[in-house]
Amino acid sequence: MLEIKNIWKSYEDRTLLHNISFTVAAGETICLLGSSGSGKSTLLRIISGLEDPDQGQVLWSGQDLESVPAHRRDFGLVFQDYALFPHLTVAGNVAFGLNMLSLPKKEMDQRIVGLLEKVNLAGFEERRVTDLSGGEQQRVALARALAPDPRLLMFDEPLGALDRNLREQLMAELRRILQLGGLPAIYVTHDQDEAFYLADRVLLLHEGTIVRDGTPADIWADPGSAWAARFLDAGNILSGVILSSGWVKTLLGFLPLECRHDHLAGDEITIMISKRGARLGTLGGINGKVTDVVFSQDGYKITLENSPEFYLPKAPQLGQSIYLEIPTNGIKCLS
Description:
- The protein is an alpha+beta fold.
- 24% of the residues lie in helices and 35% in strands.
- The strands form four sheets. A six-stranded mixed sheet has the order 6-7-8-3-9-10, sandwiched between helices.
């Protein structure tokens, strides 16, 4: 399917993309996840043909697309700002994606009706797009991208302008459409909830480089670096010193550690302690006075004096001194 090979891109002597390579398999949804300025949208524009790379290739089934203009790549693109034509009706906007197919009017009308049903806008054909809500306009944009039956769908922060309820509703609809249609897709976002909900595979971008590539579950369990762990808020990040095989000294005390790296006693390392999985103990482990307790949907967020945050199923009292036991699999070595 799609193969990205060794893509480099610079602006004004600043390198935006560093040797980017990855593939998208048939029916696979890839999420490019990263903060603003990480290169996500630039990479998407290169894949779509709207920008040229300085070096590297975009290939489809082995064919180099360098000489293929954007409108002939047969890729559907959905933007955050919808990019709808305000002077056209809903049907007119969806039909725009069909114009190059030269379909008979009856067949075009039937396809428009079917597409609007697919995105839950049945009966909206004659509505003005300027009279629609943000969520409805984004559905029109999706129907227009789907209209010519593209071989790849691409999304550039499509839900960024919507409120939480609409965003969650559209995420569910996008997931359904992608799964039923079997289309490969690339989804750009800075929101990890969107990425983890929609993606088969997540590519974490940082300063133009892919720093982690894996399933949502794999990346959450092992971000692979201190930056990724902080970006995902996957755990508490601490410095430590290796004491001996299986133990590390930190500001929170002596903690057990299973590590895949080759460390010697005295080596300084960075570890991640899961915020979840901690449990109240009696002695040892992490201890401190409770300075804050905040209700969360899946427990209570506990802050200890001079300590990171943890989640517990039941709330201790403010000012109470407690001990927390951390399971061995809740501590990861990041360096």
